[in-house]
Amino acid sequence: MKVILSIIAFSIFSIFDIGEDIATALKQGKHQELYKHLDEKIIVKILDKEDLLSKEQCTANLSAFFEKNPIRQFQLIQNTVLSPTAQFVYGIIETPSNKYKLSILIKKSSIVQLRIDYYE
What is the pLDDT confidence band of residue 18, given thresholds at 50, 70 and 90? Predict the structure, then answer.
């Protein structure tokens, strides 16, 4: 029983660390840190364009977005562990021209869904 509880606790803290790593990187304007946490296939929505992309395609799309919209500030709104293998991260990205909502779903230590929408 103790072993099972230890495994669950370790899984929760591992996932929580990923969310914290992502938030810290974005606060520092280091969007490239997202790339190392991407799953092989990711559901990506950037503004009005949504698709299932490979890790490489997602990286290219995010790089293009952040080249046009460099991060000036990131505010973490929510970092929630949904289960021992899933976590949700939500925050606001401020760029020189706009604000955007960023939501990330992490499963088994990888980003499986990422959404960037206009902040209203």
Answer: confident
